[in-house]
Every structure is written in C-alpha cells, then in structure tokens.
Amino acid sequence: MSEFGATAFVGDSLTQAGRWEEWFPDEDVLNFGVSGNTTDDVIVRLSEVIDSGPGSIVLLIGTNDLAWRRSAEHIVRNVETILVTLRRDLPETRILVQSVMPRGHEFAPEIRDVNRHLWQFAPTIHAQWLDLWPALALEDGELNPAYSDDRLHLNEAGYSAWIAELRPALERLRQQPPSSRAIQLPDLRGWTGP
C-alpha cells in the first residue's frame, strides 16, 4: 500500500486498457476507465470515484465526446464540473489532469482548444496538468502512427510513450501539498487600521 493512498485512474477505454498494476507496482491502483465513456458518463459515475477515497486521481477524458460531435465548450464545461466536484468532495486528494490525447489530425483544432482551456483551469482547483501532445502528436496534430493502429487507441509503443510522461508527472504530483482549501482571509470588519 502506497503511503499516498490509492491512485484512481479515471477515463475511457484508453484508461481501462492500461496495465496500471504492472506499470506502477508500488501503487494501490483503482481503474475507473470505462470503454466508450464521454465526459457526461464520467459525471454520472463520479460518486464511485469519490466513494473510493483515493489519495490521487489521474484523469483522462474527452476524446469520445468528439466522436459524438460535442463542442469543445461542452467538453471543457464537463471536465471543469468533474474537477470542481472532485475538489469539493475530496479536498485532500491530489489531482492530475491530462490533456485530451491526439487522434486523427482532423480533430486537432478542437482538441487543442479543449486542452488550452483545461491547462488554464487546472490550477484554479489546485490540480496538476500533464500535456501529452509533445510526446504523442505529430506536427499537424495527428496521433503518431507508431503509437496507434486506428488513430485513436494506443498500441504497446503508445502506452510506453504515455507512461514515460506519466511516471514523472505522478512523482511531481506527490511533491505538492494535497490540500486545496481556500486561504481564509482574516475578518477585517470593524478594523480601523494601525
């Protein structure tokens, strides 16, 4: 059992297919990846994640929304809802938000838009951000064909490239204070100054 508590991996088939226990043998792993899940689906089942009381959460969600023609705004709003809910209900849990992974280059403009917004939002709820694009995308936003056989799901080489980014990100996450409680300002009503 890790001194940091369980690590919950939350997402869709990319997460579900991960061999997290093998890749992180020193972790107490919970796999909340469900094939086909969209951001709406994760919101519906968020209580399962919260009830498990993990010490850390690793979130990767959003690519299936694109297949359903959901807008970037819809995806961003839902991921923000997920993050705010997790932070509210699990104030001591460390949260790592991962960028929506590249897929076919035709999706690149929307995914970049989503990722830009999430990168800006993550710090507001004291979550860490992991940008996977430099490791996985070609210049035009296409998922590197060496990492996928269908322009979406990862093959063995794709998971290796992901884990190479994720492992140090999790180490950095553990170095951050878990608490995200808002700083309480003193009540200055009635204060007349020095």
Automatic annotation (TrEMBL):
InterPro entries tied to this protein: Ester_Hydrolysis_Enzymes, SGNH_hydro, SGNH_hydro_sf
Stretches assigned to the SGNH hydrolase-type esterase domain: 9-160
Any one GO molecular-function label of the UniProt entry: phosphatidylcholine lysophospholipase activity
Family matches, as Pfam families: Lipase_GDSL_2
Highest taxon above the source species: Bacteria
PANTHER family named in the record: SGNH HYDROLASE-TYPE ESTERASE DOMAIN-CONTAINING PROTEIN, THIOESTERASE 1/PROTEASE 1/LYSOPHOSPHOLIPASE L1
Protein name per Swiss-Prot or TrEMBL: SGNH hydrolase-type esterase domain-containing protein
Organism of this sequence: Leifsonia tongyongensis
Organism lineage: Bacteria, Bacillati, Actinomycetota, Actinomycetes, Micrococcales
